[in-house]
Amino acid sequence: MDELSKSNPANTISNCWLPIIRTAAELDRNRPTQVWHTSPVGPARFIPPICAALAYLRLNQPTRAANQFQKMVDHRGCVQSFLLGTIVHLQLAHGFAAPEGNIKERAAYQDFLTLWKDADPEIPILIAAKSGYLSSISSEQRTAPP
Q1: pLDDT in tens, 102-127
Q2: Cα–Cα distance for residue pair 144/100, rounded to 1 Å
């Protein structure tokens, strides 16, 4: 990546995608604090808030993660037709997740499931989202007063 960046500093791959690849590699290496050292330009500029949110989840800071994911939901015109635009709703549910469950978590799951209502029901991420949604409902029922 360094060689490509040095040999082609002005191209789209160097400016746009290499920072994203580096960020993904840092997350994969479980080094979330390295995520903030990227700054892609062009169509990938919306990815840093998603990466930052994922880093906050890894750092056990769900409120900060939810705030980053919420930015993407609030400005969905940037990512509306992009796959990550819908996955942000699922990640937002993870940011809102609490041991006892909560309304915002369920709403984020519902938004994701609505967006994916026509998807193949065997897609693993959809199965996981349905499971998370059902779990959030079960948590509320377990903590509800008699």
Answers
A1: 788 888 889 889 988 999 999 998 99
A2: 9
CA distance 58 to 95: 11
DSSP letter for each residue of 54-95: HHHHHTT-HHHHHHHHHHHHHTGGGTTTSHHHHHHHHHHHHH
Q: Coil, strand, or helix at residue 105?
A: helix
How far is the C-alpha of 34 from the C-alpha of 108, rounded, in Å?
27
Rg (CA), the chain: 17
Compute how many other C-beta atoms are within 10 angstroms of the C-beta atom of residue 12. Answer: 14
Classify burial at 91, counting beta carbons within 10 Å of its beta carbon; exposed 0-12, middle 13-18, buried 19 or more.
buried
pTM: 0.62
In one letter, which amino acid is 27? L
